[in-house]
Amino acid sequence: MKRLRPALLWTAVLAGGVGLWAGQKLDTSSRQGPGSVSETEKEPDYGIGPVVAGIGDPLPAIVLPDLAGAPVDLQRFHGRPLLINVWASWCGPCVEEMPELARFATAQGDRGVQVLGLALDTAEGVREFLRRVPVNYPIVLETPGRADASVRLGNTQGLLPYTVLVDAQGRIVRRKLGPFVHGEIEGWATGD
């Protein structure tokens, strides 16, 4: 009889642990922090994942709103290299690299690499952030999700910041996960 009690106890502990784990997996819709998507906002899953662009692939057809709500077709940047930086106002490393990106964008002028910020954030969050840390390049907005523009640009891990370099012909030539350090962008954007 004594041997049965420890086995029964361990079975109960194991069952409780599995129950807690399953409850967490099934209750993801109740967590509504930055980057989460409610059940009503999720796209339907038809068993086909998002089309993810790789190195050498053309820039996917992406149209996103700017801060005023006007649609911005990313194809309009064709003809010059384009650095797309995916960020969010609540992302510490994103915030740290913004001054470096702004400096790089200013140095490029009208003939160099274009810079575009793609914020996985709300318009209010981005506006508040830009009041504190202004940048001189365009910003578009995207709602985080399973098939958002960041994922379609190759960010399958969903981590930020994430940067993509598109050449003048509209093909993805480089991708970087993580922030740029001082002086790194120039070499990265030119392939050095």
UniProtKB/TrEMBL annotation:
Keywords attached to this entry = Cytochrome c-type biogenesis, Redox-active center
What would be one Gene Ontology cellular-component term for the protein? cell envelope
Q: What subcellular compartments does it reside in?
A: Cell envelope
Keyword set includes Lipid biosynthesis: no
InterPro entries to which the protein is assigned, alphabetical: Redoxin (IPR013740), Thioredoxin-like_sf (IPR036249), Thioredoxin_CS (IPR017937), Thioredoxin_domain (IPR013766), Thioredoxin_ResA/DsbE_sf (IPR050553)
For biological process, the GO terms are:
cytochrome complex assembly
Q: Which residues form the signal peptide?
A: none
Gene3D superfamilies assigned to the protein according to its UniProt record, in alphabetical order = Glutaredoxin
- Give an example GO molecular function: disulfide oxidoreductase activity
List each copy of the Thioredoxin domain by range: 53-192
Coiled-coil boundaries: none
Pfam families recorded: Redoxin (PF08534)
Q: Does the keyword rRNA-binding apply?
A: no
Q: Which PANTHER family match?
A: PROTEIN DIPZ, THIOL:DISULFIDE INTERCHANGE PROTEIN DSBE
Q: How is this protein named in the record?
A: Thioredoxin
Source taxonomy: Bacteria, Pseudomonadati, Pseudomonadota, Gammaproteobacteria, Lysobacterales
